[in-house]
Amino acid sequence: HPDVVAAAVPVGGLLPDPLLPDKLPSDPPPIVALHGTEDRTVAYDRARRTVEHLSRMGWPARLESFPGVGHTIPKPMHRAWRTTLRALLESTAGDP
To answer: Which end of the chain has the least Cβ crowding within 10 Å, N or C?
Structure first.
């Protein structure tokens, strides 16, 4: 919902296949996904495929990988989340 979401920073998540968009909104919000490569709860490969699908469509989406990390949020990932969120908030100031 780009009309109400200016950016997203999901951690250890994915979009199930039935929810993957099939068309690009006119002004898609940036997505920076953070995911551990050893996540056994939400498989890293599923998150990677989600971001690849969005990127192929032209969505400003990227995946920041954390080697050796499972379904947890260690300090380096938490710092990356805060830094990324802060940068996105500053770049989208005034947006919904």
So the answer is: N
